[in-house]
Amino acid sequence: MNEGSKKKLAVRALIVGGVAAVALVTAARRCDQPKPGESAQENAPESSAPVNPAAAVPRPRPPALVPAAPAAAPVPSSAPAGPLNETQLMARLRSIKDSNFAAAIDLARDGNRRFPDSADAPERHSILIHALANAEQRSEVRGEAEQMVNHYPDSEWVREIERFTGAHRHRNVRVNDAGELVFY
Fold it and tell me: Given Cys at both, which of 4, 116, 131, 155 links 122, Cβ 3.0 to 4.6 Å?
């Protein structure tokens, strides 16, 4: 089981636990309320003490504590205030790619916009595609994969993305008037 699957399983377990807690609290509240047609005094045990009318008024219960949904992994605040250079950007991207998919997507897109044809661009694009897949953005995965395999056709990162997504390079081939294949 990979790290992403473990995190998804943990999030689902927390959600199921939260739903179960809400169901238990709701059931407990329903058991404490009088049934229709019965008054609160009919269910009360008999006692010889006089009844204080102010004490007979039921007090509202405080809201039950329900576990909050887990928040996204916090982004470390060690990042410099200004824009990162490409080396810093790639180091940061590699460190968050498996733990914070949304931040990895944003950072990879920023890097692709600022450094589109650098030596690290194919790797950055690969990280973007994997982060999109982990964030279950399937249509964007396919579009980014098609763009990547055609923009960086000779990169080893492209081979990996071709295997991962099934996207393949479009060959720029045509048949000329003489019936010969022409590559352009």
Answer: 155
Q: What does the alpha-carbon distance between residue 158 and residue 125 come to, in Å, rounded to a whole number?
A: 9
Residue 65 has pLDDT above 70, yes or no: no
Q: Measure the CA angle with vertex 32, ends 31 and 36; round to 5°.
A: 80
Q: What is the pLDDT of residues 129-184, one digit of tens each?
A: 999 999 999 889 988 988 888 888 878 888 888 888 877 776 666 677 887 767 66
DSSP characters for 94-131?
Answer: HHHTTT-HHHHHHHHHHHHHHSTTSTTHHHHHHHHHHH
Whether the full predicted model's pTM is greater than 0.85, yes or no, is no
Give, in order, the Cα–Cα distances in Å from 14 to each of 3, 5, 19, 56, 131.
17, 14, 9, 39, 23
Domains of the chain: 3-56 (no CATH), 86-165 (1.25.40.10)
